[in-house]
Amino acid sequence: MTVQTRIIFAICYIILAPFVIGLLDGFDRKVSARMQGRKGPSVLQPFYDLKKLFEKEFLTANKAQLFMVKSYLCFILLSGVLFFAGFDLLMVVFSLSTAAMFLVLASTSTHSPYSSQGTHRELVQMMACEPMELLVAVGFYLAMGTFKVSEIAVNSKLGVMYLPGFLVGFIFILTIKFRKSPFDISTSHHAHQEVIKGVTAEMVGKEYAYVTLAEWYENAILYGIIGLFFINSNPLSIIGVVVAILCVWFLEILIDNTSARVKWQLMLKLAWGVTIVAAGMNLFLLEMIKG
């Protein structure tokens, strides 16, 4: 991949990701409403909400929180640029972990008991997700012989054929990453969350808009990793990528609308259990094949 191509892909990510994920979020609300027997809002409602947040009077609990929120957005953007420009997948995972820490720090910079409770739950969610994220990068290296996204995407091998366990584990943790029920324990996109928006409880106006925008950019990366399982040197594999992403998108909506929220202990047990069984067995088989 040439330098010019990397730059083009990075710019496309920065410009297009919010529009694509915002539309998916809008259709998410519409489909969820239909599942619940409601008409639902316009598919453009997420964009109206984001615009309203940016137009609100600027208020912040303290300057430290604003700095942490902006850092959170910047590191998410860095992660996306690294991924879509074809750089090291392991670096993408580490950059996402760093971004998550800035969100935690933003929440802890206030003295709100709701933010404090949300922060503790956010840390538990990170404990549940990050082993699987790291193992996905390791799995791609073992199957493809490289961490570089650009080389994985043009490999003659199809990732899903060698990494089905990793795919299952990654889809499982996406429910946590997308903050969907039953694992939306630290914050929720629903107003009736019992910890009153948890980790984002003290974020209003532009601050909350930055967090929403960062989540959209992060979701684009997560869907991109799903696509990485289905893309190879065959141009027609792009069709498979789109179909796979849409299937995962719908599956997450279905899970969200048919599941009740669980306690953090159960979430942690389930996440680590799936990681050990699905990814662990797949990792063992890869090592056997290589051996």
End-to-end separation in angstroms reads 31 Å
Structural class: mainly alpha
Shape category: globular
CA gyration radius, whole angstroms: 19 Å
Number of helices: 11
Count the strands?
A: 0
Poorly predicted tracts of residues: 191-195
The largest β sheet comes out as:
none
Percent of residues in helical segments?
over 70%
Beta-strand proportion:
under 5%
| Count of domain modules | 1
What is the H/E order? HHHHHHHHHHH
How would you describe what is shown here?
The protein is globular and about 55 Å long. The chain is built from eleven helices and no strands. The protein has one domain. About 2% of the residues have low confidence. It is 74% helix and 0% strand. The protein is mainly alpha-helical.
Task: Give a brief description.
The protein has 291 residues and is mostly helical. 74% of the residues lie in helices and 0% in strands.
